[in-house]
Amino acid sequence: MRYGCPSHRLEIVIRQVSKTVRIEADFVYIPNIMLMSFMDSSTHTTETYFVRELQGFDMGRLEEIYRLEKLLLHGEVTVESALEYIDTVMNKPEFYPKWAMLLSYAAGGFASAVLFFGGSWKDGGLAAGLSFILSIYEIFATYVVGLGPLFEITIAIFIGFTAKGKPENDAATHGGFCFVPSSFGSVIMLLPGWTMTSAIIEVASRSWISGIIRMVYAILYAFLLGYGLSLGEEIYVTVDHSVSIKNPDVCPGAPSQWFNFLLVPLFSITYCVYLRAMPRRYLLMSTVACAGYATSFALSNWVKTSQQVVQLVPAFVVGFLGNGWTKWRKEWSFDALLLGSFFLLPGSIGLRSGLAVFSEPDTGQGLSLAMSMIQAAMGITVGLFLSTLCFYPRGTQHSPLMSF
């Protein structure tokens, strides 16, 4: 739970381990909580425990836990040795220093503003600065308990106000900054696209409770970010009446799409750091992610096809490459699948829907775009499951962390 195991497979993983070590137990997972019931058939008694843990990402530690699980399932290590190893993994120091995470936020904001939101180099620079401030504020919020419930809304208001308040903000006529790429790129690390995709995967896997809870959370979280950005924008317009509330659909000064050859690897490495993957995994993860993005880019720009195909085929390519690597090399590839999915996530659509709901309540764009976010998540889910079916037609009982 702490290191990023696919949430829809958590129950399966623990049931396999408990069966191997001959423990009578049952497990139920809901977001951030695992209910564990241990049964004693001789005395007909049951003990139930609640394990609370926020889901995070640490691919380096998750890979080690996965290897341990495989050894345990094959009877190659004892339970005592496994417990000692788990303590070693949990207690070892962080591989990445805090300054590396700060730089990853800034680099991610810069790349995403230009790559995904059509911004100029200046918009990317502003997004990088605001992302850097966001990362510092996030660290500060961990030490101030009262900021916890207000973290997202306060930073979104600040980013919305700052992105709208830069000089020459009317980018359509003065060549200034564009609000959409500057603000959306700044909060790229907060977007709930992966949460929505996880929710769809859980629902497809018949984990109804966890999936529905996560889906509602993702939609409301997107609206919360959209509300904060919209509120910050409105506050600045209230202060400075010379600025228009309307944002241009196309930002001038956007660089050539050939620069994507540089921005895609930059964004990929940024997320490798964010996911705390080991450097030896960068090449595989980036290759799979770049292949998925290239497929999506080609379908969107050169092939006249429906949006459903644009969402499904790249996800299938990502899953096919990841599962193919596992089948061929007998190595763990979940981190590559995860990074590839981040390139295809519909989080930006969800944020746009939240912004549209509060800034243009009469257009109906908010709800329609929220549905687009769900539709995109469904496409990614189906693509990943189809790729898994190609390599594991009988299921993935012996490789619970290798695929979705």
TrEMBL record:
Residues 261-389 form the Threonine/Serine exporter ThrE domain. One of its GO terms (molecular function) is transmembrane transporter activity. Residues 1-234 form the Threonine/serine exporter-like N-terminal domain. One of its GO terms (cellular component) is membrane. Keywords: Membrane, Transmembrane, Transmembrane helix. It comes from the Eukaryota. Its main location: membrane. This is Threonine/serine exporter-like N-terminal domain-containing protein.
